[in-house]
Design brief:
Helices cover 9% and strands 26% of the residues. It contains one helix and seven strands, in the order ββαβββββ. It is globular, with a radius of gyration of 12 Å.
């Protein structure tokens, strides 16, 4: 907890924020499930494989196709895909980010 993937999530388009900016009003489990299912908001055009989900307070979810470094953010929980069998691992305080598999 307290870490956010560096870079831009594929579920946020700076040019189309009204249509492509993650999901609000979701739970941490919802966010994890969206990553597991490689979902994207209806207004997002690009398809990516999710390797990490970031759940931000209050109840906001963004998905990342890459997560090798983190920024400190006390309002965020990062969950990173691990190799099969699929599960998401919450990132602890050591700053490492396990590599995901597609």
């Amino acid at each position: 907890q307290g870490k956010m993937c560096k870079g831009e999530p594929y579920t946020r388009d700076q040019c189309e924020l009204a249509n492509c900016n993650g999901w609000s009003g979701v739970t941490q489990q919802d966010c994890q499930d969206k990553c597991h299912n490689n979902e994207k908001p209806i207004g997002c055009k690009q398809d990516f494989q999710c390797v990490a989900a970031v759940f931000e307070a209050p109840n906001w979810c963004q998905l990342y196709s890459s997560c090798t470094e983190f920024d400190v953010d006390s309002n965020a929980v990062s969950m990173v895909k691990k190799p099969s069998p699929f599960f998401l691992q919450m990132v602890d305080g050591d700053g490492s980010c396990p590599r995901g598999s597609n």
